[in-house]
């Protein structure tokens, strides 16, 4: 499965945190995020924007599969991917579904997509989240990291010239309370994030998981060209980098430019650092709400 | 040791030593938010050799007293 092309879109309002919150410097020093992006629209609008960019010059009628990764649904039904497919003018035979995952959503759907690409040949993998609508106005910690954004990726079957060589997923539903938004009144329907405990999860679970992927590569004599990890914030990215030893320079970063766009951080990194330009394979590591974490090695 | 830990907490939250005590709680201190707590854990790890590995309860502690007791137990 080859990554043919990617494009992304951000919320149209750039918010400098120093303009919104008093004494925010302490927080931004930890997050490394001076500004975030917020949309007046919704996740389907953002997805549409990213898709229109990526489909420029591409015959969209050839798209046979569309996955929309989002935890910011506009409709409970029909599936938001169906609405998106109509807005894009995809052909009526397209197979679509929504994928309800957050920061691990891109990597998990990438794994699913690879299983389906031999049948559907040309596919669109779209991530889109508008977490800012979920935030309590007085919750400085979440307001200081999350951005609204979307990314669209065209994937094509290439008979396994490019392929996932390794994948590993961890699902720890017992940690649901660390990061959630309830359909009911829990936390007044707003997003709750226990940042410290999630950080501990990244140290105890995600770092060893990435290290195992690296060990796999070393054992198979696979060179690692780049490591794409979820851009949660500076403190998380730097913490993971610090545990990867000689591979730390391989880790790409862009949280300082866009904030935490949830499901879109990794595909945006790929947009800026194309996998096909790497000298070696790529490692993708998505982790977060669930808590869940998925790591793949992709060549 | 209690003073040492309170000093670390104060530094992590950008507070003066005098602004925090053994009886302080997260609910009373605006700086003790999600990311403030994260900073606190990092400082404790630096000082006490990755103590959060041995004392995961530090991640959910919400009072200075809980932190002091956890550090004393696991350091």
Question: How is the secondary structure organized here?
Answer:
The complex is a heterodimer of chains A (299) and B (75).
Chain A: E1 2-10, E2 13-16, H1 17-20, H2 25-31, E3 35-38, H3 43-54, E4 65-69, H4 80-88, E5 95-99, H5 105-120, E6 122-129, H6 140-143, E7 149-156, E8 164-171, E9 179-180, E10 192-193, H7 195-219, E11 224-229, H8 234-242, H9 255-258, H10 265-272, E12 281-288, E13 292-298
Helix pairs in contact in A: 3-4
Chain B: H1 2-12, H2 34-47, H3 51-54, H4 64-74
Helix pairs in contact in B: 1-2, 1-4
Describe the structure.
The complex is a heterodimer of chains A (299) and B (75). By secondary structure, chain A is of the alpha/beta class. Chain A contains ten helices and 13 strands. In chain A, a hairpin with a 3-residue loop joins strand 12 (281-288) and strand 13 (292-298). In chain A, helix 3 (43-54) packs across helix 4. Chain A starts with a strand and ends with a strand. Chain B has 75 residues and is mostly helical. Chain B has helices spanning 2-12, 34-47, 51-54, 64-74. The longest helix of chain B has 14 residues, at 34-47. Chain B is globular and about 25 Å long. In chain B, 36% of the residues are buried.
Task: Provide the low-confidence segments of chain A as ranges.
Answer: none
Which secondary-structure class do the elements of chain A indicate? Answer: alpha/beta
Helix and strand string of chain B, N-terminal first?
Answer: HHHH
Q: How many distinct domains of chain A?
A: 2
Structurally, the number of domains of chain B stands at: 1
CATH architecture of chain B: Orthogonal Bundle
Radius of gyration of chain B, rounded?
11 Å
- Contiguous uncertain segments of 5+ residues of chain B: none
Largest sheet of chain B: none
Strand tally of chain B: 0
Largest sheet of chain A: 5 strands, mixed
Query: Most extensive interface: pair and counts?
Result: A-B, 20 and 17 residues
CATH architecture of the largest domain in chain A: 3-Layer(aba) Sandwich
CATH topology name of the largest domain in chain A, in short, is: Peroxisomal Thiolase, Chain A, domain 1
**Average residue pLDDT of chain B:** 90
Measure the end-to-end span of chain A: 10 Å
CATH C-level class of chain B is Mainly Alpha
The average pLDDT score of chain A comes to 95
Helical content class of chain A: 25-40%
